[in-house]
């Protein structure tokens, strides 16, 4: 019976010794990878957090020091948790192999570069993803991502304008602003700022009227805008459209041809024909062109598209 008892004691002693040896190996591994320092920093950060939290409560420094010491003493609890965690995942032999690697110059270099490599890997993946998105966009739409973004933004604005044009309150407010600007301009006709704002407002109102099918009213406002400021580029983009949608095909055709190749240089369009074609296509897509005018619109699009290459707006040289 004594032999069995002593044998059991021996087994327990050996198991304890192996466990202690395993714990020591893991502590050596923690040291090799810098985990021991990391855990120590965590303890000190927790102590600092406690101090900052209770500093304003006028707690005596001795009590804070006592709590800080208790937190430091609990470091072994954190360490034991980490040891148990690693024991679940690695054998003793694997821990030794890892320790040998991380204690080597190559292992230490890997640890030093690990953070930088993760960041570089992330940036490389990000650049690759952006390149693939750019390639996919070009393959599917024939546009760069930036060109598609601008087109989507322009379509969104057009759709919002279309909804606003159908709102009677919005139209009434535009008319009120136009009337207010006109009064100010009549008081100060030499004011260049008021002159530009008023011409733009006439164009803005006319644009909404075109969307609403009020073509004659739109043409009248555009002509009034030209009387105020004949240099306003926006007005001439909508005048031929107002004539075309009223059925005045020859008048519209003459204006389209007169301005077709003239420089525009606003909102990404180099020439007037760029704007003409974009507006006609947007009105078609929105389904707001009268059925009896569809053939005329197609004829004008063909006329504008002769030898047409979508030209990118070139920024004017800086003085």
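-> sequence recovered:
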């Amino acid at each position: 019976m004594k032999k069995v008892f002593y044998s059991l004691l021996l087994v327990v002693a050996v198991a304890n010794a192996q466990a202690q040896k395993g714990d020591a190996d893991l502590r050596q591994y923690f040291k090799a990878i810098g985990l021991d320092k990391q855990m120590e920093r965590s303890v000190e950060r927790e102590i600092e957090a406690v101090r900052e939290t209770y500093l304003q409560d006028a707690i005596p420094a001795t009590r804070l020091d006592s709590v800080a010491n208790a937190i430091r003493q609990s470091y072994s609890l954190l360490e034991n948790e980490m040891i148990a965690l690693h024991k679940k995942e690695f054998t003793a032999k694997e821990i030794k192999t890892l320790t040998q690697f991380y204690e080597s110059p190559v292992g230490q270099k890997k640890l030093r570069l690990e953070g930088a490599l993760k960041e570089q890997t992330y940036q490389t993946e990000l650049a690759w993803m952006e390149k693939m998105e750019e390639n996919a966009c070009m393959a599917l739409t024939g546009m760069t991502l930036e060109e598609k973004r601008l087109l989507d933004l322009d379509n969104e604005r057009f759709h919002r304008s279309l909804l606003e044009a159908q709102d009677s309150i919005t139209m009434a407010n535009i008319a009120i602003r136009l009337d207010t600007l006109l009064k100010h301009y009549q008081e100060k006709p030499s004011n260049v700022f008021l002159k530009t704002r008023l011409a733009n407002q006439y164009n803005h109102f006319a644009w909404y009227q075109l969307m609403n099918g009020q073509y004659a009213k739109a043409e009248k406002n555009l002509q009034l805008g030209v009387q105020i400021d004949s240099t306003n580029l926006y007005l001439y983009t909508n005048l031929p459209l107002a004539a075309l949608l009223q059925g005045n095909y020859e008048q519209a055709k003459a204006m389209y041809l007169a301005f077709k190749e003239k420089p525009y240089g606003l909102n990404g369009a180099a020439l007037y024909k760029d704007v003409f074609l974009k507006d006609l296509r947007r009105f078609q897509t929105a389904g707001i062109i009268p059925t009896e005018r569809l053939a005329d619109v197609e004829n004008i699009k063909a006329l504008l598209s002769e030898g047409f290459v979508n030209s990118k707006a070139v920024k004017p040289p800086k003085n």
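Residues 1-18, 307-319 have pLDDT under 50 and may be disordered.
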